[in-house]
Design goal:
about 375 residues, alpha/beta, two-stranded antiparallel sheet, 16 helices, about 45% helix, about 15% strand
């Protein structure tokens, strides 16, 4: 059965309703992948009280977009289109409803935030779905900011969004069970929202939450993971990472995590369609690889060696150089490869000597730390 993934899961079990086969971790991962699609003009926005079934959303999407000419970005798996198509046609996912879609990208405030609310009416449950880092440069800048800033704008927005969902659908429409989830940064946002949501009078939000899914998403700094709010929700957090995880091992995780087998290597394991499943479960391993542990320790030591001012200065300088390419997305950056490299080299050459020295020193420090950790593990 090795090599099977969530596409195979949909083919095998897509004819089973949630009443016939309970909601599981793989279902959550599927929803956490579907939110990567551009749903503007398809899923009703925050201003609307309407909802659309996943079946109708898929049909509308494929009528609006030519799959062969469309792209979700250089890091997205091509099989995501097949995932969406299969889910839309399935008994299991076809009738779930999508609503309250928001996609906020602002280069000035350095935010990339996307979420939607999923109604699983068979179970009278809500799934609050957060998108991970998309193709935008500003999205990656915000990720880097997480190394020295808490909260980043998307984390603040995630709490605001979840608070609205609670007030609108728990208090007014009696959806008493809630799940939250996301892949990559989306997993981080799901945990942050569940941690710091405000309970309306007469309710305890944490008691309503069934589970919070963090699929290979980064953790948090000590301020968050040692807070009373985090400790209250920790037992409901389910963190799942591939064996060579990089993103999911960043920052701190007080909760335990499950390691799943991937058919990819290195950073490519961040692609959730590479994660292997059998039946209704992931194929699990005992631990992440030595390479993942070395990189994890390296990045934590490197980030810990810089104070907030130094870290911010490094990230700001790095992205100022990247912005010289005029690229707004990673796709822009890659598609204009030669032009991008020329622009980056020119921008670096134009930096003052102190900035150049700082960038070189930071990179050299990270490499030195990695070498020391690598020698200790081998």
């Amino acid at each position: 059965m090795d090599g099977t993934n969530i596409l195979d899961y949909l083919k095998w079990r897509g004819d089973l309703s949630f009443l016939q086969s309970p909601f599981n971790d793989i279902d959550s991962l599927i929803l956490s992948q579907i939110i990567y699609f551009p749903f503007e003009g398809i899923v009703p926005s925050m201003r609307s009280t309407r909802a659309i079934t996943l079946k109708d959303a898929a049909e509308k999407f494929f009528s609006m977009y030519d799959e062969k000419k469309s792209s979700l970005g250089v890091l997205a798996a091509n099989d995501l289109f097949e995932l969406f198509r299969l889910a839309g046609k399935s008994v299991r996912f076809g009738d779930i409803r999508l609503s309250r879609y928001i996609n906020k990208i602002n280069h000035e405030t350095e935010i990339q935030f996307c979420a939607m609310t999923v109604f699983i009416d068979e179970l009278n449950e809500l799934f609050v779905d957060f998108r991970g880092t998309d193709d935008t440069i500003v999205g990656w800048k915000e990720d880097f900011n997480m190394g020295f800033m808490t909260p980043v704008p998307s984390q603040t927005e995630s709490v605001k969004y979840f608070n609205y969902v609670i007030s609108r659908y728990v208090k007014e429409e009696n959806y008493w069970k809630i799940r939250l989830g996301g892949h990559s940064k989306g997993g981080n946002l799901a945990v942050y929202a569940a941690t710091f949501a405000k309970s309306p009078q007469g309710l305890n939000v944490q008691n309503l939450i069934e589970c919070v899914y963090n699929f290979d998403g980064p953790g948090f700094d000590d301020k968050v993971i040692k807070s009373e709010e985090y400790l209250r929700i920790r037992e409901k957090i389910k963190t799942i990472v591939p064996q060579s995880s990089v993103v999911g091992m960043l920052l701190g995780h007080e909760e335990g995590y499950t390691v799943v087998k991937s058919n990819q290597v290195g950073l490519l394991q961040h692609d959730a369609l590479s994660w292997e499943v059998v039946g209704t479960e992931f194929i699990c391993l005992e631990s992440v690889t030595d390479a993942s542990l070395v990189l994890d320790k390296t990045l934590k030591t490197w980030i810990g060696s810089m104070d907030a001012v130094s870290a911010e200065r490094f990230v700001t300088a790095l992205f100022e150089i990247l912005s010289a390419t005029d690229a707004k997305t990673l796709t822009d950056l890659v598609s204009g490869k030669n032009k991008s490299i020329t622009a980056i080299m020119k921008a670096y050459a134009g930096e003052d000597e102190d900035t150049k020295k700082m960038l070189k020193s930071a990179v050299r420090s990270m490499l030195d730390i990695w070498k020391r950790n690598f020698r200790k593990r081998t």
